[in-house]
Amino acid sequence: MPPARAFRTSLAPICMLSAMSLLWAACGGGDIGAPRTGQVQVITTTTGVETDVDGYAIILDARPGVSIGSNASSTLVAAEGKHTVELAGLSANCGVEAGTRRDVVVTANETVDVAFDVVCSSTTGGIHVVTATSGSQPDPDGYTVSLDQGAPQPIGTSGELTLGGLAAGAHTVGLSGVAANCTLQGDNPRTATVAAAQLTELTFSVTCVSVIGALAVTTSTSGTSLDPDGYSLQIDDRPGQPIGPSASVTIADLPAGSHTVLLAGVAPTCRVDGDNPRPAEITAGQTAALAFTVICETALLSWNPIASGTRADLTEVWGSSPTDVFTVGEDDNDPAPGGASLILHYDGVGWSRQLKLPSIGLRSVWGTSATNVFAVGFDFLASAAKILHFDGTGWQDVPGLGSTSEQFALAGVWGSSATDVFAVGSAFDGEFERALIFHFDGVGWQRMPVDGSVSPALSDVWGSSSRDVYAVGRDDEVDPATGVVLHFDGSTWSPVLQEESLALSSVWASSATDVFACGFEVKELNDGTFEVKGTVRHFDGSAWARMPLPTDRLLQEIWGTSAADVFAVGDGVVLHYDGTAWSEARPTSRTLLGVWASSPVDAFAVGVGGLILHGVPLGFARKSSRP
Q1: Which class is 301-617 in CATH?
Q2: Thinking of the domain 124-208, which architecture would CATH place it in?
Q3: Over the stretch 499-510, which tens digit does the pLDDT of each residue have?
Q4: Among 1, 25, 134, 268, which residue carries the largest CB count within 10 Å?
C-alpha cells in the first residue's frame, strides 16, 4: 500500500500547475512561453529632382531588406526592446538629412514611427544663354545657338535660352546667324563650365550698325494736258511704285550705295527735265532727296487717214482700248430699202467689217468692255428702235423695242455700268418727235417716262454716275425750236437748259461739275438771213455757259479723256480743249461725225464717206496693213 500514496503525492504539484495554466488561458492570457513584440512603421518622404525611381530598402537589425517606395510607409514587427532601422538603396544623388540609420525602442503591443526625409539633387547642370543686341538695324531673324557643335537652336536678338540636362564639366557654346552688319563681342564659340544642379550664365553681346538708308522722291508737274494717272517710280530692278504728278514718296529700305531711279509712265505730251533715269547715292541711316520736274504741253496730233474699206457715213466711234475700237455707220448706196448699216472693228493694225445689216440705221456705239458693247439706231421697215449687243463673240439683236402708235429711233447710248445703261432718241407720233429713253438694268430694257411739257427729240446721253445723267436734243414743238438739256437725278428727268435757236447733238462729262455739250446755234441777221455757228456749252456745277471757240464751224460730237483733254469734231474740223482753251485743226474737207480717244495722243475721228482719221503725235503715223 505505501507505493500508491507516494504516487499521489508526486502528482499534486503537476496538477496544480496545470490548473493554473488553464486559469491563465481562461482569463485571456497569452502563451506564457511566447516573446513580447511591437511594430515599427517606416515612412519615406522624397523631394528634389532626379528622385530614385525604384525606391529603397528597409533593414531592421540584421534582417534582409524590405522594399519601400520613395514616398511610402511600411510596418515591421519587432521584439520588445532596442533595434536599429536603416534606409538603404539610395541613389548617389540622394541623401537623408538625419542619416540613414535610426535606433528605436520597441514596446510590446505598440507602434513606433521612424521617418526618413530623403532629398535628391540633380546630377546635371545647365547653361543659361543670353543675347544682348544693340545698335540700329538688328538682325531681323535672330541667331542660333549650338552646344558642343550640335544642332542649332533659335534665339532672338535680345533673348534667352536655357540648355539643360548637361553633364558636369566643360562645354562649348557658339552663336551663329549674325548678320553682316552686326559684330559679336568676345570669343565665339566660348567655353562654359557646368556644375551639377547649377545654371551657368553665358552672355553674347552683339552690336549692329545700319546698312540701309531712305530716298525721298518728289515730282512737280506743270503745263497743260497733265498726265491724269501720274507716274511710276522704279528703283534699280524693283517693281514700280506709283507717284502722283505733283507728289512725294519715301522709300525707306534701300541698301547703302549707288542706285538708279527712273520716272516711268510719263505721257507722250510730257517730258522730264534733266536725266531720266538718274543716279541716287544712299548713305546708311540717312534719307537722300531726289526731285523730278515734269513739263507737259498740249498734244499736237497729226490726223492721218486710215483705210476703212467702205464709203458708208460713219456716225460714231468708241473703243475699250487703243486696239479694240468700234465704229458704226450707214451706207445709203446699198440696194436694200433705206440702205444698210455697218459695224467696223479696229484691232490695232487695221479696220475690218464685223456686221452688215440691211434696212437698219445705226447711229451710236458704246460699251463697258471689249465683251459688252451696245450699238443703237432704228429699223427702216418697222417702227421699232434697234439695239444690238456684242458679247465679245458676236452681235445679237435685242427684241421688243417697237410701238404700234409711234416710230422709234435711237441716237445715243451710255451707261454708268453694265447694269445701268441708257439709250436715247425720238418717238415720232406723226406730227412731232418727242423724247425716247430706254433703260437697261442688267436684265431687260424698259422705256422711261419723260414727264412735263418739255420732251425734246434726243441725240446723245452721258453722265458721271447713275444719278447724274444728261441727255441733249432739240424741241421742235415750240417756235423757234429750242435746244434742251435734260438731267436725270436717279428718279426723274427734268430740263436744266432750254435755249432758243440752239441745237445740241452731243454731250460728254468728266465729272458732275464738268459737263460739255456741243452742236450749233442759229442767229437771224438784220438782213433776214441766218447765221449758223458751232457751239460748245459747259456746265461747272452751277450754270451753263457758252465757251469761246476758234472757229464757227458746226460741231457734231464731243468726247474727252479728262477735264483737260476734250475733243470736238464737225465740218472738217477737230477742236481740242486742254483745260484752258480750245485749239483748232482742219485735217479734212469732209464732215466728221464722231470722235473717241483713249489718251491725249491716241484718238479716232470718223465721218462721211467712210472717213476714219487716226490722231497720233506729230511725226508718228500708224498705218494700216489692210487696204
Answers
A1: mainly beta
A2: Sandwich (2.60)
A3: 999 999 999 999
A4: 268
